[in-house]
Design a protein that fits this description.
about 110 residues; alpha+beta; single chain; Alpha-Beta Plaits; 6 strands; two-stranded antiparallel ribbon; four-stranded antiparallel β-sheet; globular
């Protein structure tokens, strides 16, 4: 088996209420992110207690996570765009170092 070539990127994981999905996806698109994954109906425990992941009334009423692998130079513009949002809304951002294969999938 051939060795996989790995490239360094940053993983941005954004957890927020589903009703704000469009704001974040638009921000990522404008920043030049070439793709992302959206995970719906999150369950978990945080500062406000346990959050059940089932649909209550519609998909805007649940927590979602948007995951993107980005070059380091896109991190600051993304975080700067999210800062005013998170001063008004609940949610969290996780940032970590990752390695990916097929780097061509992450270039514009």
């Amino acid at each position: 088996m051939k060795n996989l070539n790995l490239s360094l990127l940053k993983k941005v994981e954004i957890i927020l209420e589903g009703e704000h999905k469009r704001f974040v996806t638009d921000l990522l698109d404008r920043a030049g992110v070439t793709g992302y994954t959206i995970v719906n109906n999150l369950s978990g425990k945080g500062g406000h207690g346990f959050h059940e992941g089932h649909l209550m009334f519609n998909e805007d009423d649940v927590l979602i996570m948007i995951i993107a692998a980005v070059p380091e130079d896109l991190v600051d513009p993304i975080l700067e765009g999210l800062a005013p949002f998170f001063s008004e809304h609940s949610g969290v951002v996780f940032l970590s170092d990752i390695q990916v294969t097929r780097m061509v999938k992450f270039r514009v």
